[in-house]
Amino acid sequence: MSEFLLPKVPRDALLDSLQYTHLPGRAQTVYLTPSLTISSITAPVRLFLDGAHTIESIHVATEWFLTKSTRSRVLIFHVTGSRERSQLEPKLHFEKRIYPTLETRKENPSNYSPNGGGDGEGTLEDALEACFALQKPVDVFVTGSLHLVGSMLEIIDYDCEV
What we know:
Layout: H1 11-19, E1 28-32, E2 45-50, H2 55-68, E3 72-77, H3 85-88, E4 96-98, H4 124-133, E5 138-143, H5 146-155
Parallel strand pairs: 2-5, 3-4, 3-5
Antiparallel strand pairs: 1-2
């Protein structure tokens, strides 16, 4: 039985490890510059990404977002499985709320249905286009699902290698 016990790690070593841990998609801010945009509209967009997907984690992520956001706010939100969007969705004022499918791009419509499959308001590409179409600086809170955040990192070609 003792072979399954983890070795004791000195507290300082544990704290150092946590301090330098990088976990893309958790409390992560990505600044979209014109060279990164998928749109011809180049208004500055800041993505605040957190894969929170429980009531407690979404509450913590929302508090983090509130401490960082200084512009008009947009929510991109998706839940998977049997969870109810109305129970999990952040209770903040957003200029726009977008509930996309998990499809990334319109060119890859394997399961794309504009009105079906979960939230079903277009692809993630459509969601970003809607943010850029506001034609002003916005802070975009992307949360509700690790799948959503991972797909968003894919669509903006974010390099997750450290």
